[in-house]
Amino acid sequence: MFLVVYLLFGLVFVNGVNTKSIQNETVDESKFVTFDMLNNWKRNMTDYITHMVEQNSIKETKKVFFHAKMSATDTTYNKNSIVKFGTLLFNEGNHFNPGDSVFVSPISGVYLFSWTTQTYSGKSVNTELRVDNIIKETLHADLGSAAGRLSVTRVVILKIDSNDHVWIQTSDVFSENFFEYAYNTQSSFTGVLLFSI
Question: Are 74 and 165 part of one and the same domain?
């Protein structure tokens, strides 16, 4: 990179110096390289390099994707409980906390969120996707006594601001929300940044 800068400087300097002035000819002062010109050039190059570094940092920040599952056991949650997805499979950018199962958006953008709940005959699961404690979408599974097991999924696309907190929690409908684990299948929560705004 610095080699390119020195070469450019050399070309500007060589082309800018008028050697004909030694021969008593009229000097074209527009071809002289002044210290102000060099300082402006240096400032422009510094601004350009800084901009490129910042753009690269933004691109790195934009890699946002998580996918987490519940533990490999049957679990029952009370009303208004944050659902814990403690088995982390992917967490690009490290913006999902498996400890409290809350995602914190690093930048404003349009995000896709999806969550799946699995329950069994005679059981119910009512969940909500919340952004800073505001309900954005709901997902309900209320099974009859002979329904067997069922997985249901909700996909949501939302505009999210920087530092918004996103999580899944049970609604205030049922005091026993039963999440079943069976055949290596469990409830999950996924989020991905589609594009920044």
Answer: yes
